[in-house]
């Protein structure tokens, strides 16, 4: 019996909005075992679409953020891996817009809080905009987008108390053991970056690269800060959040104003497609990393931020990013979280900013014109004039190329809502335990202290025990020390 079944109440079966009973609320429906997610998964679409419309007008997640423009420069030849033109030659420059953010806080929240940081990049390439929407951590709390609305609800204000509740946070994490790895990251020393300039970034998901010959490679992106990693202790963050809620936004703006342009070294891990099936971890599981010993990070470029936006609302708040914005030679993977985000992000922006959000200056392509048959809607500027609004047509309108942006994925089997098959070393705790054991004694003490402080507010012993047990399964010493620290705080 699963932990979800054990925790089930006597309220009756979970249903869709139309009243149909839900068979599986933990796994999206896929094309065959481990295949890409299907659009016919009505529950997934209903949950994501409803979630995107719960609040207006600010972003439901990543509301609090700052942005800047800059350039990306290629420093290595990667043409044997991808045919993307912006990566086609050493020295090639592409304009970039970056937005950094916290996840759970609202627009008025403080910057210096313990929370993952969004790390979103928009490359204005000659083949259209390429958006890479990542975080400052290489992993995430969940592996399936069907659980994303539930997860974010636990991080937001409780519907009764109006506050974030430790019961909700650790109840969900305890019932979702795949979160153990990310929670260990979040409550460790890198959980509160000192600024946006002093943190690394990650694409987090696995993406497909395809070369000119149609060969497929799986890749993970890494952005290593050239300023060095700097982080805050919980005490330092608490003080800074109260004294200067805009600390990170101010730091980014002022550093660019004085000509101290922040930069990052861009690297990728590259896995030949044929190696994915037998890799020891599921390479498409967002709660897992690829150990660098297996697939070293290879430098491919540098990006630098050197220009501030002139109007925060127009250029930062109205900026939109979608992981579905690919260019030829780059595409998605069967990562179930990524598959959900391909729909969820664009849908959120169509609702939040409007159906013509892509036409705003910060969002529209800068190196090529968008050329399609989308018309009308709120804030439509009439740019297409009297041109025909249908395809195919006999009036010289834009036509399809016949060449997909990426290679198709092979799928087989029946549609299913089951879990993705485990690889040889797949479980929810091994990488969290490895991360813990890599830490120094001082780092372990701070991790345990940070977690114990957050968990001390949990009111129910069963929720506390289940959450602690996840860390004990990652490492016996981790769980033992955490249990003792929580007990000491609770008296």
UniProtKB/TrEMBL annotation:
Top-rank taxon of the source lineage equals Bacteria
Q: Which CDD domains match?
A: catalase_clade_3
Extract the Pfam families matched here. Answer: Catalase, Catalase-rel
Q: Does the keyword section mention Oxidoreductase?
A: yes
Q: Per the record, which residues fall in region Disordered?
A: 1-31
EC number annotated for this UniProt entry: 1.11.1.6
Q: Which reaction does it catalyse?
A: 2 H2O2 = O2 + 2 H2O
Q: Which InterPro entries match?
A: Catalase, Catalase_3, Catalase_AS, Catalase_clade1/3, Catalase_core, Catalase_haem_BS, Catalase_immune_responsive, Catalase_sf
Q: Where is the composition biased (Polar residues)?
A: 1-30
**SMART domains per UniProt:** Catalase
Q: Does the keyword Heme apply?
A: yes
Q: Which residues form the Catalase core domain?
A: 15-399
Alphabetical keyword list: Heme, Hydrogen peroxide, Iron, Metal-binding, Oxidoreductase, Peroxidase
The family line of this record is: Belongs to the catalase family.
**Annotated protein name in UniProt:** Catalase
